[in-house]
Amino acid sequence: MALPQLSAVTELFKPITWFPPMWAFACGIVASGLPMENRWLLAVVGIALAGPFVCATSQAVNDWFDRHVDAINEPQRPIPSGRMPGRWGLYIAVLWTVVSLGVASFLGAWGFAACVVGLLLAWAYSAPPLRLKQNGWWGNAACGISYEGIAWTTGAAVMAGGQMPDPRSLWLALLYSVGTHGIMTLNDFKAVQGDREMGVRSLPVQLGVQSAAGVACWFMGLSQVGVIVLLFAWGQPGHALAIALLLGLQLLMMDFFLTRVTQRALWYSGFGVPFFVAGMMVSAFALRGLIVAGQ
Among 117, 189, 243, 265, which is most exposed with the fewest C-beta within 10 angstroms? Predict the structure, then answer.
């Protein structure tokens, strides 16, 4: 049996996609308000679990079950191009699922349970019979919850020794999960033709490119407005204003993006989304300040 090249395996795992859940886990660590002290190893293992393990698994699963769509949209990918021969894409997805569970066992009951949920969502997103990505509303929600909500909450819980995080941290995790629903839509504009031919009902396919772009921007914008309102209510006006400034920059970029959606979706992902991501850490530090102050 032909073996895949290491470069093909690396490409299958898509390291560039690991950053969002790793960042969200780090935000949860910061938002916990707890000192690192003897928790450095847990933090490093948790961040690695979120990215090179669970997220990498989700990418392998997605590429295997999307290989027919990719043959139309992105034939250069490892599986449709033949650089990942036979059923190796599936074998790697299964193997990395097991490895991820092994790594998660070092994070206690909460970390392990969160890993199980994240992996179930990863398989449910791409694999039949659920294949949540068949509908953009459900698929994007699964990604938002997994990439941001679960990762953030797990980071906070692991730092707290497996205890339930501060309710305010859960609110922030939820709002940024909602915003990530919109970010996930940005990834769908490059694949409209293949999705339509293969019956994948992404939001651009369901709503049309222009309407889907507007919905994505509303998801991203309103979620951050919610964060700003909460930070003002919690007595953190400085952090709230910082996120408002970041949102203002995004709104200017959104206006430019919406004039030529298909051509500028990748541009907005690269230059607009980082402002959204920066706001996540700003809000995490705002909550950390409150918890350290005993508020």
Answer: 117
pLDDT higher than threshold 80 for residue 43: yes
The domain spanning residue 21 has which CATH number?
Answer: 1.10.600
More confident residue, 38 or 165: 165
Q: Is residue 47 part of a domain?
A: yes
Q: Which domain holds residue 189?
A: 9-292
Amino acid letter for position 37? E
Total count of domains within the chain: 1
- Spatial contact of 210 and 190, defined as CB atoms under 8 Å apart: no
Query: pLDDT for 63-82, tens place per residue?
Result: 999 998 888 888 999 999 99
- Say if 2 falls within a structural domain: no
Place of tokens 């990395």: 96
Token pair recorded at residue 168: 């305010």
Predicted TM-score (pTM) of this structure: 0.94
| 77 found inside a domain | yes
Residues with Cβ < 8 Å from 115, sequence gap 6 or more?
Answer: 49, 54, 100, 101, 103, 104, 107
Give the count of alpha carbons within 13 A of 243, CB side only: 29
**Beta strand ranges found along 68-132 (DSSP E):** none
Does 157 fall in a domain?
Answer: yes
